């Protein structure tokens, strides 16, 4: 793999990473401390692809960007619903009164998350983490709150949108950008491919250096998200090997086919390790060290549990493992016949 830069732009800085495509970053208050965002030339104007989280810091940086641009914003495209991608999308779309593009599942899921729990009980969240085998103190910590954290870092989402579908084609500045949907990291993640430029804006579907989180969360504990990912990732190998990949995190790169193979191998290694570990019956909590060698913070614990569930769901669906609810409280996974 060949990286196209040795570091990210500083927040507020614009870098032309491909002809008619600008690269910028916004800071994130997490271990992964930045997100890559892109601007696509559209005649005299620019199309925004993803926006960063909805904070005053990010908003101020965007205002600096707007002052530097040699045109206005003509559209906002959101690859998927996660707050670091959709955070200020509604604000920018409304500021410039321009079309707001998302896939249908991502749009309506984001709208639902913005509304929080609306008074619903947290007992299902508690059950999800308890059945993973986490101790009661940690379960209580992970399930506190009213579920409105999403809306605190996401500006109001426009009440209408333009739907993105797989194989749709968007035309900007006489260049065609094809929508390629990938699933697993999120329900209907939209990537953008421009054949004339040889560029793929991959969002979180294909990342270098790190792997996208593929999780089964408490909203759908039995979800087969890993199957979705392993099914929708290989078709991207139909794109040319020398495609310039513009990811949402880390550095733009060339080497698409190699990276896809590495990501597939990574998940199959996890599956193999989990299956081996389950020669003796195991809970999700007991299996976390099989997948994650580092100490997990409480925030990372949410993602880690979800990722472990996703891999175990895949193995159960494939008939490689069985799961049993022990004492009506904890799920235990084991190799068939054990």
Helix fraction by DSSP (H/I, runs of at least 4): 25-40%
Low-confidence stretches: none
What is the distance, rounded to the nearest whole angstrom, between the alpha carbons of the first and last residues? 42 Å
Q: Name the average pLDDT.
A: 96
Q: Which class best fits the helix and strand makeup?
A: alpha+beta
Q: What is the percentage of strand-forming residues?
A: 15-25%
Number of helical runs?
A: 11
List the secondary-structure elements in sequence, H or E.
Answer: EEEEEHEHHEHHHHEEEEEHEEHHHEE
Can you count the beta strands? 16
Rg computed from alpha carbons, rounded to a whole number of angstroms: 21 Å
Reported for the largest beta sheet, the result is: 7 strands, mixed
Overall geometry: globular
Main β-sheet, spatial strand arrangement: 1-14-13-12-11-10-9
Please tag this protein with its features.
single chain, 338 residues, alpha+beta, seven-stranded mixed sheet, 11 helices, globular
Q: Would you write up a description of this structure?
A:
With 338 residues, the protein is an alpha+beta fold. It is built from eleven helices and 16 strands. The chain has a seven-stranded mixed beta sheet with strand order 1-14-13-12-11-10-9. A seven-stranded mixed beta sheet has the order 2-3-4-5-6-7-8. The protein has a two-stranded antiparallel ribbon with strand order 15-16. The longest helix is centred in the last third of the chain and has 22 residues, at 256-277.
């Amino acid at each position: 793999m060949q990286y196209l830069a040795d570091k990210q732009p500083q927040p507020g800085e614009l870098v032309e990473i491909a002809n008619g495509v600008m690269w910028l970053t916004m800071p994130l208050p997490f271990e992964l401390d930045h997100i890559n965002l892109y601007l696509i030339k559209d005649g005299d104007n620019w199309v925004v692809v993803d926006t960063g989280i909805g904070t005053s810091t990010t908003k101020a940086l965007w205002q600096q960007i707007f002052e530097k641009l040699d045109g206005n914003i003509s559209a906002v495209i959101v690859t998927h619903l996660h707050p670091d991608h959709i955070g200020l999308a509604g604000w920018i779309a409304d500021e410039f009164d321009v079309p707001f593009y998302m896939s249908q599942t991502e749009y309506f899921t984001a709208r639902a998350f913005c509304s929080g729990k609306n008074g619903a009980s947290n007992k299902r969240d508690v059950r999800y983490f308890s059945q993973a085998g986490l101790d009661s103190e940690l379960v209580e910590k992970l399930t506190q709150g009213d579920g409105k954290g999403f809306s605190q870092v996401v500006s109001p989402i426009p009440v209408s949108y333009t739907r993105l579908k797989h194989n749709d084609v968007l035309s900007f500045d006489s260049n065609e950008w094809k929508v390629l949907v990938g699933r697993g990291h999120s329900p209907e993640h939209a990537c953008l491919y421009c054949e004339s430029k040889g560029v793929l804006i991959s969002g979180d579907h294909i990342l270098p250096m790190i792997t996208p989180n593929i999780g089964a969360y408490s909203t759908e504990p039995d979800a087969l998200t890993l199957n979705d990912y392993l099914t929708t990732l290989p078709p991207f190998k139909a794109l040319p090997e020398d495609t310039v990949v513009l990811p949402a995190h880390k550095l733009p790169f060339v080497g698409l086919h190699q990276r896809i193979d590495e990501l597939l191998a990574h998940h199959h290694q996890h599956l193999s390790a989990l299956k081996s570990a389950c020669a003796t019956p195991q809970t999700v909590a007991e299996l976390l060290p099989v997948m994650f060698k580092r100490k997990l913070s409480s925030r990372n614990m949410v993602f880690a549990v979800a990722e472990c569930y996703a891999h175990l769901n895949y193995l159960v669906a494939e008939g490689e493992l069985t799961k049993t609810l022990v004492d009506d409280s904890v799920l235990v996974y084991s190799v068939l016949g054990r």
